[in-house]
């Protein structure tokens, strides 16, 4: 499986509204809000299961720009990267090495992190996806029948039992969990589990 790009899925109740990369999800969700007038949605980052919030005020272009999903400008200047500033503590020799890198400290650190993520073992990536499915289940299906049994099956990696427990759940909820677990099973298979 290639290095995954973050994807997002929005839900209105048990119904999936949009799913895809950030730009696609934002545009489809914005369109849903405008046509339905309904703004109380839950949006999940698929690779973590974390709920995220977006500001849908203004035009579609303004929404994309606000959340760093707009197409980069052509011409001089840097496009917004969506960077988050945080403190990093390193030894003097590490700072010296970073300062000598031709593309600068931040670019070098980003490159090192991206390379490390690509080398991340499939087992760890599979665990993260399983945990993302668990977070999603807690948020969206905690009151559905057989939730506790389904949750136990998830964390026991008993996906066939889990599928049986969620077979009567709303279609979009079930399909979202299944999509995450299919990716998880692919990674587990690649890791030889």
Automatic annotation (TrEMBL):
This is DUF2239 domain-containing protein. InterPro entries: DUF2239. Pfam families: DUF2239.
């Amino acid at each position: 499986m290639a290095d995954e790009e973050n994807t997002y899925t929005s839900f209105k109740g048990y119904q999936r509204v949009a799913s895809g990369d950030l730009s696609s999800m934002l545009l489809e969700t914005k369109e849903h809000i405008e046509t339905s007038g309904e703004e109380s949605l839950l949006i999940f980052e698929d690779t973590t299961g974390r709920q995220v919030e977006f500001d849908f005020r203004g035009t579609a272009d303004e929404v994309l720009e606000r959340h760093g999903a707009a197409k980069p400008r052509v011409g001089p200047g840097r496009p917004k990267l969506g960077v988050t500033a945080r403190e990093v503590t390193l030894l003097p020799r590490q700072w010296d090495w970073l300062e000598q890198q031709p593309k600068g400290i931040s670019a070098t650190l980003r490159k090192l992190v991206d390379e490390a993520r690509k080398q991340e073992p499939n087992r760890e990536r599979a665990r993260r996806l399983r945990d993302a499915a668990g977070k999603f289940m807690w948020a969206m299906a905690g009151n559905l029948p057989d939730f506790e049994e389904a949750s136990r099956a998830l964390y026991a990696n008993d996906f066939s039992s889990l599928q049986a427990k969620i077979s009567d759940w709303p279609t979009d909820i079930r399909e979202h969990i299944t999509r995450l677990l299919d990716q998880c099973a692919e990674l587990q298979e690649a890791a030889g589990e």
